Each structure stands twice: as structure tokens, then as C-alpha cells.
Amino acid sequence: MDTFYISHGSPTLSIDESIPARHFLKAWQEKCYCQRPKAILVISGHWDTAVPSVNVITGLNETIHDFYGFPKDMYKLKYPAPGAPELAKRVKELLMASEFKHVDEDRKRGLDHGAWVPLMLMYPEADIPVCQLSVQSDRDGTYHYKLGKALAPLKEEGVLIMGSGSATHNLRNIGGSSVPSWAMNFDTWLKDALLEGRYEDVNHWDEKAPSAKMAHPWPDHFYPLHVAMGAAGENAKAKNVHHSWDMGTLSYASYQFTTATS
To answer: Which of 256, 257, 252 is nearest to 8 (CA)?
Structure first.
């Protein structure tokens, strides 16, 4: 299985047909970006904890509407995908066998909108088991790359590893009809770095990238990329599978990582 980083942008992606990324995600299965997974592991920028945490859910995942001030219809949307308790335990096992010695289990938390909004477009049948893994935004890119590296065996077990965030994510600077230079410069740097395989530069993005702190004042929506990247491996090939802008500064750039064959 390849790994992916999906920019989920605004929660309105769930209902707004004018957002180009919505059509990209709705065509996911038709475009055959990957074979049908046995289970899906989502690393979402909307679950940020002190230590790595997995949601261990038997039965159906609850749909968490973790956004405010949006149209009422959005709060009626449901994505009742089955939980993936076996996958959750496997994730914990792999992390603890690596350098992550403390992994929490959350037996109540369902799917936040970083998970269910893209998944309801990609796999609308909601019949594939889904597990979430949290980020630790007080750590760095290398930490999250190593988190992904520990999860690499899952690719051979039919698991789709999907980071979900936003290629640029500065909610204090959204709006406008044109893309400002700081957003464009960061987004272009990221694309070039990934396609050229400069993963160490991406791990040290806060030092290497132009306008890094403007593009990501807080890194929670960026670190899911590092997990997907790390899970694919150091010689993986990156591909830009979608690119569009919304609200001036939100990049929906999304990437596929294919593990190098020996």
C-alpha cells in the first residue's frame, strides 16, 4: 500500500461542490489511487495529545462535529465506519517496539472531521474499519517521521496510512481572491522538496522552508505529512496527486508516497 497526505482544508469540504478538492476525493476509487484497504489508519491534525494515542473502538465510530459556526446541515452528517480495534492494538505494538514507549488507548473517541470529511468522499459506503492516531504538536518533524517509520509494516498488512491536515494552515490569514506570496512560496517549496526526495529538509521545515511559521503558526496540520512520509521510507517516491487553493491561503495540495522497491 502507498501512503498518503490529504489536505482536508475547511470543514465545508463536506458539502461545498465548488471546492475542487471535493471532486478529487469523490473520484478516489475511480482513479485507483490505491487498492481497497482492509483498514484505514488516519493521522489527523485535529487530535493532538501529549503522547501517541489510538482510538480503540468496537462497534461503529461516532462522528465528531469538532467545528463551530458552520451551516446546520453539516452537523447532521454521519460517517458510521466500523472501529478497528485490532489495528489500534497493532499500531500500539509497533510504536512500543520502536522508541515510543508510552502509547495511550482511547476507548470512547470517534472520528474527528479531519478523518470523516475526506473519508466520506473517498469511501462513502463507510464499510472499511477506521482507526485514528494522534499527533504531538509540541514535538518536531523528525519525531513524526520516526512515528511513521515505526508503522511501515502496516503497508504490507493491507492498511491505508493516511495523514490528514493542510499543506498551509493559517486560519488568522484566510480570505482574499489571490494567493499571497508567503502561502505560494511555502507551498511551492514543499512540492519541490517532496518531489525531489529532500525528506530531511521537510523534517526540518521550520528552518528550511520560506515563511514556515506564517504557513503553519502551529504545526498540528503539518505533522500528519511527516507520518505518511516516514511510513513510506527514506527512498520513497512522492507524487502530487492534487493541488488547488481555497479562501486565498488554504492549499489543498495532497501527496502520494510509493515505497522504493529493492
So the answer is: 252
- Distances, alpha carbon 39 to alpha carbons 1, 42, 55, 152, 210, in Å: 11, 10, 14, 14, 36
At position 61, the amino acid (one-letter code) is: N
Chain center to CA of 1 = 16
Q: What is the pLDDT of residues 7-24, one digit of tens each?
A: 998 888 998 998 999 999
Q: What are the DSSP calls for 91-131, one per residue?
A: HHHHHHHTT----EEESS--B-HHHHHHHHHHSTT--S-EE
pLDDT value of residue 262: 61
User: Roughly how many angstroms between the first and final C-alpha of the chain, as a whole number?
Assistant: 16
Predicted TM-score (pTM) of this structure: 0.96
Helix (H) or strand (E) holding 40: strand 39-48
